[in-house]
Every structure is written in C-alpha cells, then in structure tokens.
Design goal:
- The protein has helices at residues 2-17, 19-46, 52-70, 72-82, 84-89, 95-124, 134-158, 162-178, 191-199, 201-214, 221-244.
- Helix 6 packs across helix 7 (134-158).
- It has one domain (2-244).
- It contains 11 helices and no strands.
- The protein is globular, with a radius of gyration of 18 Å.
- It starts with a helix and ends with a helix.
- Keywords: Cell membrane, Membrane, Transmembrane, Transmembrane helix, Transport.
- The chain crosses the membrane at residues 20-40, 52-78, 104-126, 132-155, 167-187, 225-243.
- It is a multi-pass membrane protein.
C-alpha cells in the first residue's frame, strides 16, 4: 500500500505544482460554457426544453473529467522518456501496485478538475436542483475518473511515442465526448445513433451526473452506476495486464 500511496501522491503534487496546467485545464470548459451556453440557450428555450446552461453544465463537468483522466497516459510517456518509469519498474514492488497508484493519482486529479469546473458552472449561474445530491453526483465523478484513467494507463502502456498517443486520444476522446449526450439530448435520435450512443461509456457518466444534479435521467441510476462500475473493472484488468507487459 505504501507504493500505491507514494505514486498517488506524486501525481497529485505534480498537478498542484503546475499552475499553468491548472489554469489551462479550466480554459476549455469556460469556453464551452460561454460559447455553447450563450449560443444555444435561446434555441433550447424556444424548443421548450428549459435552460441550456442547466443541461450542459453536467456534460462540461464530464468532459473535463474525461480529458484529464485519459491524458493521464501522457504522463507515463514522459516518465518512460526521462527514465522514471524504468526506476519504478525495477523497484521491489509489483507492477499492479504501480499501475494502481498511477491510475488512482490520475483519477484524483481528474476529480479535482471536475470540482473546479463545477464551481465555475456555479459562477455562470448553474444551480443543482438539490444541494444534498452533490455527494451522489461525486459517485459518478469518481466512476468516470477511474474508468478513463484506467483507459489512459492502458493505452500509455502500449504506445511509446507522444505523437501516436495524441493521435489515438483524438481518435477516441472526441467521439466519446460528442456522442455522450453532453451537448444535446439523446431522446429522439435515429436507431443507428441510438446504438452508438448506448455503446459510449461516457453516456452513462453524463446521464448520472445530470440526473444527480438536475434530476434529468435518461436511464435509471442503478443502470448508470452498474455499467460504469463494470466497464471500470474491465479497463482496470486490461490496464493491469498491459502494464505488466510493458518494456522500457
């Protein structure tokens, strides 16, 4: 457990000490809130769907967690390039502990960023329907952060160059985000799009966040949490296997 804690703490300290990363990571959510929130609010109201800011804020929080968690894999590439990964792999601890510590660290950083974006959403005028539901929302924040942090670790274990990682991330992350229902309702989609969105794991994370914060559910809470937990376990097993095979 000591190795897991040290690696978790390292990821946390690296994030806290990088003020540029903290500030820049909040710029994109602010842009989405301002551009989409202001631009689509009149259309949303005219369609009788209420406040678009209330609808989009949980999706922006989910986007922040997704990007932060997945790009945790980039840190592994840097550690591989500068030799730190080799030092940790030759340490007298199991690779499963190393992978777990890195994944928990990445997930914690993503949860912090999601919390900061939630505070920004509150400044923009977003209001949860019930403040007591915030702890429930953080259950979904944790599940989404763990899921995509494990995915980032798995991909970072396979890819060795930064350019390849960024291409794979852009190929995966943007479709995962845009097909999750973070920016638009999924109620009246065609059959093909409905199948695709149902295969997107972030769909259930965004639905859980939106349901917990504004009581707007597409699926049931148990279904959202169950699917996220199952996929998270699958990615953790996959990440642990790929990390155990890593060579530096």
């Amino acid at each position: 457990m000591g190795a897991i804690y040290i690696l978790w703490l390292r990821e946390l300290k690296r994030y806290i000490r990088s003020r540029v990363q903290v500030i820049v990571s909040l710029a994109q959510p602010c842009l989405y809130l301002f551009a989409f929130g202001a631009g689509f609010s009149p259309v949303f109201r005219q369609a009788g769907l209420g406040s678009y800011l209330q609808f989009i804020a949980p999706g922006i929080i989910g986007m922040t967690i997704l990007f932060s968690s997945v790009f945790n894999g980039i840190a592994m590439l840097w550690d591989r390039q500068f030799g730190f990964l080799k030092e940790t792999l030759v340490a007298p601890v199991s690779r499963l502990q190393i992978m777990t510590g890195r994944t928990l660290g990445g997930a914690t950083v993503a949860m912090i960023q999601g919390t900061l974006v939630l505070l920004i959403c509150l400044l923009f005028g977003f209001r949860p329907e019930h403040w007591l539901s915030l702890p429930y929302a953080f259950v979904f924040v944790f599940l989404v952060a763990m899921l995509f942090s494990a995915l980032g670790t798995a991909i970072g274990s396979v890819i060795k160059d930064m350019q390849g990682f960024q291409l794979v991330m852009n190929f995966l992350v943007m479709p995962i985000y845009f097909l999750s229902g973070a920016l638009y309702p999924l109620a009246n989609l065609g059959p093909v799009m409905k199948v695709i969105t149902h295969l997107d794991p972030l769909t259930y994370g965004v639905d859980g966040l939106r349901g917990a914060l504004i009581n707007h559910w597409q699926f049931s809470p148990a279904l959202d949490a169950g699917i996220l937990a199952a996929i998270t376990c699958g990615f953790l097993v996959l990440g642990a296997y790929l990390f155990s095979k890593i060579e530096v």
